[in-house]
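Bug #77: duplicate submission created two jobs. Keeping one. Sequence:
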Amino acid sequence: MEKLELKIAYTEFENEGELSAVDQNLIKKARDAGDLAYAPYSDFHVGAAVLLENGVIITGNNQENVAYPSALCAERVAIYYAGAQHPHVAVKAIAITCKSKSFHVKDPISPCGACRQAMSEYEMLHNSTIKVILMGETGKIRIVDSIADLLPFMFKAEELKKS
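Kept job's structure:
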């Protein structure tokens, strides 16, 4: 038996002013999308903004449903729309923000496992990493260079693809 250790690298910024203009814009778009979320049950508004290689920005927000499993996270709304409308264009980055009327979200939000796996599919599809920008309502921002940093043991189903 061998016990191994796994480490990830990420960059943390104190505030939005430390980010590039492109990343600041992506966070603004994600925040604006979150404002439009349909979240009557949790009152937890999540916004996502996907930057494509061609410069197009696609936004999405969480869409809740009284039958909770039928809801969809902001990340998947945005990335699936990007995949549907721009199937041959790689995703360059995604910004994810959140806010709540019930409490203040000061820590960066992180995507759920299903969203991580869905985003990893697009990294594999285009053989291109996706930068992930994570932010709460205010405060620090975390950036990882790839979905693989958030999901190191991602499900890779190459053997399931037909040749």
